[in-house]
Give the backbone structure.
Amino acid sequence: MVITKDTKIADVILKNHNLIPIISRFGIKFGFGDKSIKQICDSYDINADFFLEIVNAFNDKDYLPYRKLREMPLNLTVNYLLKSHYYYNKIKLPFIENLISQLEWKGEDAEKNKSVLKKFFSQYRKEVNEHIINEEKEIYPYILETEKNFLNRNNLNPEFTEKLKTKSITDYADTHEELNSALLDLKNIIIKYLNPPENREITEQVLTEIFRLEKDMADHTELEDKVIVPVAAEMEKELKKQL
Ligand SMILES: [Fe+2]
Ligand SMILES: [Fe+2]
């Protein structure tokens, strides 16, 4: 289903509960009655066109995504990505870490199993954190600066002109693959290699949460790789012609 401004927001969640964290990232709280997306977006001061592109892209793989997003101001997508970073770092990763700490094993390898898993998870968390810091301190600001200068290209900021001479958005090393493989290791340890923990329900919850996080991050990464980076790269290319 294509979600439109007139769709009731409750129906969106009833149809696809995977959108719950996406919607809450916009600051929208439950208890929306029969309000439509347009009404909710107006009351929360959210750009409804942007909201619709995000929920439709994440709701339906076949929705032709990103074309409209690429035409919108980049700071809308960047702001959304920043909220996702906050969600990973402050909410989801601590939540999974806490679940992992509740896993129990019997026998002499109990402590060893626990520490192996904790070590892998904290390594993964560290990698995510470094990735996020790099994006927030380097990549996103450069992208926004590129857009700002592009929109004002008859009057380029001299400092930015200097940066343009040496920098390029394509120089940024892509570490998304590394993050994926760290997450795959983590899943494999639980699914294939460790003795099964005693508390089966928590184990299932840990795995379910890891799979959810993986999907969420894949959507996040797509916005970076298919929206903000290529759009900024196009602008950068035009600006470099002016040098
Ligand atoms: Fe990111
Ligand atoms: Fe990223």
